[in-house]
């Protein structure tokens, strides 16, 4: 169990409100600021016990006031700073951005160049410290100091990291603030410092404390399952022992039901975000040396998919289909990142153009196409494999508040063949991206059914869209992007895309690879065309042909779709090629005719189709 030093805080002096005041103008940079005041202090050498402790951790003793602040930094992990209260204009502290102040002299007598966004500690007239990094020469404690104001604050880690890095100034205080201190411990540390300074400097502690905390920070809550502890560690730890370990570490527990509990994480434990972090804490305190030795191991029979090899296979197939791979930045500006879902802001963005994590690969693809169009590269077949990130909850405080998925995006635009003297090249259309998707899945040897074929569906980003399903679960979506979206990227030609969820795709069953010998007997090809309603899908026709045929039918190929008023209102023509053969003999004309006409009659019956002459 964590034990704090005994606190003997005797504040019997003048009311602190009459001696000092604190105001926070930048609450994002400084969520909490606590302060105590000690009056009538005598600045002198620290006692031996304090000097010995500081020397033991590599610090040089200075005087009793400064030594106390350094001692508490190591005792409690809370950085402190002592100001000479009489040097503070108006005896007030204001936490705000540097603004128009360009230069500031720190305790090491060096002049620092300030940025307008740097977080500063100011008095009523001027800056007196770089927040969380180093104090100023104009307010330091000297041998003439009588009244001391002790600062104990919590500063935003990313803000301190940014200031420290820009100034090239790293201190013990900035090191700890950058990594996150305990917002709940500022008041205790301020009181502890006041107690020691009053004892060692023969001073008087002002009555009361100053504690400005505009929006108290909320503790993170993590659900912990007992069964998960057993599964991860490989042995069972009793519920009572789990509770004892977590309570001893300062966690607050609420049992949800007999199988799990809700753990409230102290604010100083920035490393605890997920269930697995709590399990690690339980194992660490329980003792790794006490984990029992198990001489048996369970090996899954299903081979684990090598993700890297799978991606390489995807790249090889798409390259073979004429695509070129691109790599785009996973960070975009807020508008583009939020186009396809709730985006997650980056804590310390390098620029406004890289402020949020992408929610789709599409914006990056469109930026690439737009740049190529500007240099007259208009005919493109591109793909990208990358991760996307989408917010699940309104507040992004942990890994549970957003999802991360790996996606594969394919895109075609421009012409699929070049202009020649005898004619113009053909433009890419929806059938090209559809064909590439089908060819990709075939080459990946993914098991297919008639139900998983692409179906039409409208979408807010597409003039028309396609969805690829497997057992009614979406694994991919694409289509023709609408003009509104393309205009945002200065693209004035059609773009067709298909976006696969690679995490879903990798789990689809694949046909076992087998050797197919060269055919010993001839294949027989038959063609026919049907007039059908426009609402009839390709998959419906394929299913009907299969049901009307025997196992002599090996392949079905759709080679033409034709629409004309001459076919009738709401009608279209679909032409198919059927391939028959047998591995053991030559087929006769009679059995092929029988099978062929059975298939035709089945399509007529099922889909109200008419055979074209």
Comma- or semicolon-separated keywords:
613 residues; alpha+beta; Phenylalanyl-tRNA Synthetase, Chain B, domain 3; Phenylalanyl-tRNA Synthetase, Chain B, domain 1; BirA Bifunctional Protein, domain 2; five-stranded mixed beta sheet; 28% helix
Q: How would you characterize the largest beta sheet?
A: 7 strands, mixed
> In CATH, what is the class of the largest domain?
Alpha Beta
CATH fold topology of the largest domain: BirA Bifunctional Protein, domain 2
Low-confidence runs of at least 5 consecutive residues: none
What is the number of independent domains? Answer: 4
Annotation field: number of helices = 16
Q: What is the approximate shape?
A: elongated
Strand content: 25-35%
Structural class of the helices, strands and pairings? Answer: alpha+beta
- Span from first to last CA? 89 Å
Tally of strands: 29
């Amino acid at each position: 169990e964590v034990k704090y030093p005994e606190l003997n805080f005797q504040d019997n002096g003048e009311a602190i409100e009459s001696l000092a005041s604190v105001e926070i103008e930048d609450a994002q940079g400084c969520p909490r600021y606590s302060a105590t005041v000690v009056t009538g202090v005598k600045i002198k050498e620290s006692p031996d016990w304090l000097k010995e402790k500081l020397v033991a951790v590599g610090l040089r003793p200075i005087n009793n006031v400064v030594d106390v602040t350094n001692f508490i930094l190591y005792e409690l992990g809370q950085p402190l700073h002592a100001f000479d209260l009489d040097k503070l204009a108006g005896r007030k502290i204001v936490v705000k951005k540097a603004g128009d102040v360009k230069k500031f002299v720190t305790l090491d007598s060096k002049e620092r160049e300030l940025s307008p966004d740097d977080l500063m500690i100011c008095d009523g007239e001027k800056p007196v410290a770089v927040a969380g990094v180093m104090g100023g020469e104009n307010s330091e404690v000297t041998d003439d100091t009588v009244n001391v104001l002790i600062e104990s604050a919590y500063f935003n880690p990313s803000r301190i990291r940014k200031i420290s890095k820009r100034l090239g100034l790293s201190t013990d205080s900035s090191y700890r603030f950058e990594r996150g201190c305990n917002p709940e411990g500022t008041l205790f540390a301020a009181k502890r410092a006041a107690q020691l300074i009053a004892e060692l400097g023969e001073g008087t502690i002002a009555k009361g404390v100053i504690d400005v905390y505009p929006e108290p920070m909320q503790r993170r809550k993590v659900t912990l399952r007992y069964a998960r502890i057993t599964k991860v560690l490989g042995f069972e730890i009793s519920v009572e022992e789990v509770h004892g370990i977590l309570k001893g570490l300062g966690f607050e527990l609420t049992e949800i039901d007999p199988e799990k509990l809700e753990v409230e994480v102290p604010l100083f434990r920035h490393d605890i975000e997920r269930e697995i972090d709590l399990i690690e804490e339980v194992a660490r305190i329980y003792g790794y040396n006490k984990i029992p030795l198990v001489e048996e191991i369970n090996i899954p029979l299903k081979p684990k998919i090598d993700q890297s090899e799978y991606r390489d296979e995807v790249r090889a197939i798409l390259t073979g289909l004429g695509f070129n791979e691109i790599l785009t930045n996973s960070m975009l500006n807020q508008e583009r990142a939020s186009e396809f879902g709730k985006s997650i802001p980056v804590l310390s963005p390098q620029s406004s153009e890289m402020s949020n994590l992408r929610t789709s690969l599409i914006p990056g693809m469109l930026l690439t196409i737009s740049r190529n169009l500007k240099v007259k590269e208009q005919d493109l077949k591109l793909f990208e494999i990358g991760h996307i990130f989408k917010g699940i909850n309104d507040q992004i405080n942990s890994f549970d508040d957003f999802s991360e998925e790996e996606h594969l995006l394919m895109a075609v635009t421009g012409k699929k063949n070049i202009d020649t003297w005898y004619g113009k090249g053909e433009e890419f259309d929806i059938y090209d991206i559809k064909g590439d998707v089908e060819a990709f899945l075939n080459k990946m040897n993914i098991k297919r059914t008639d139900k998983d074929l692409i179906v039409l569906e409208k979408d807010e980003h597409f003039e028309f869209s396609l969805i690829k399903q497997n057992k009614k679960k979406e694994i991919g979506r694409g289509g023709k992007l609408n003009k509104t979206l393309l205009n945002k990227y200065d693209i004035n030609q059609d773009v067709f895309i298909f976006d696969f969820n690679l995490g879903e795709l990798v789990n689809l069953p694949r046909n076992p690879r087998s050797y197919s010998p060269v055919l010993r007997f001839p294949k027989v090809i038959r063609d026919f065309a049907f007039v059908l309603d426009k609402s009839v899908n390709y998959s419906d026709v394929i299913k009907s042909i299969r049901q009307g045929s025997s196992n002599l039918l090996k392949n079905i190929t759709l080679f033409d779709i034709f629409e004309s008023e001459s076919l009738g209102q709401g009608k279209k023509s679909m032409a198919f090629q059927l391939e028959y053969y047998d591995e053991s003999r030559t087929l006769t004309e009679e059995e092929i005719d029988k099978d062929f006409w059975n298939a035709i009659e089945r399509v007529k019956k099922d889909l109200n189709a008419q055979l074209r002459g």
